[in-house]
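[User]
If only I could read backbone structure tokens as easily as an amino acid sequence. I have put the entry right below:
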Amino acid sequence: MAKKATKKIASKANKKTESKKKVTSQKAKTKKITPKKIEAKIVKAKKSLAKPKSTKKVASKPIKKVKTVTKTPKKVTGSPIKKVDTKINLVKVSAKKAPKKIIAGTDYKEQINNLDSIKKQRKSAKKPIITLPPPPVIEVSNFPKNKIKNVLISQPKPAEPDKNPYLDLGSRYGLNINFRQFIKVEGLSSQEFRLQRIEILHYGAVILTSKLSVDHYFRICNEMRVTVPDSMKFFCINEQTAYYLQKYIQYRKRKIFFGHGTMLDLVDVIRKNKEEKFLLPVSDVHKEQIVDFLDELKITYTKSVFYKTVSANLSDMKNLNEYDLLVFFTPAGIKSLKQNFPNFKQGNTRIAAFGHTAAQKVKELGYRLDIFAPNPFNPSMSGAINTYLKESNKR
């Protein structure tokens, strides 16, 4: 028992000595790192931060403030660091109207506002403006405005009398309105058309100026057994002519363009399709202004006669002097007047003409022009007659 007790006491003593050795070894380690050594390390760190290695390079190449120019020079000397706002480079300005210099130090928003105020020139503005020659000046006679009772309109009888403006004038002023067509339209036969040596399928676009041109274009195609392809483009002078195409083709499946009554409305559309070859179906008597317009556009087109206007047979009419007013709308109608009534003397009969070509034809054949339309005050013939009747029939 005594031996066991001595062994326990010795083991406890050994444990205490081992623990004391560990403590002393830890204390020895802590004694190695003194405060003086720590301070010395801090001083060295501060010195290294105060004098970095990169200071030498910065001193050799100082940063310069440079004014940026919109036009970059061809040769640049040196490689100075430029302070330029990248947002300014996103604005596109035409070289002709851009300011010469942009200062980098100013606010970029002000510079962008200045650049936006300068409008960039559009490409469409560079295109030449189509200017047709001005129409000739039409002089109206000063013949006394006597009372008008009987009026002859050189047009066929209206299908809807309630919507006719001339019948409205007749009911308003108590006039006798008669309708008689002085001309008739005859289409060319397929043999006569072949003499022009025109292949319809050689053209990818057609310019249609009236419903008559639509009728005779498709009539010639049927007689010559030509099927109009779906890729054919139609350029119509107004919306009514465009919708009239539904009589022959499906409107939705075709490329159809239309204006508002004049060829000038089709300038931009024709220019976009100037690579096409255009076909212009006309009558033997047509307006030369359309041809002048197409010449100004400098496109490839061919004018072809599809129908002709001839004088109607008016042998059943005995005397024209019973009418106080004769109204004409085409030069062919006035020509028919001369052919059917070569001995006609105007006297007190007034003549009204619509359009510059018809008015010129009146004077060429030796007649007197009393009413002319369109004019600055009346764009329609019915309006011009109305203003005349206000003075002639006021009593």
In short: Residues 2-32 form the longest helix (31 residues).
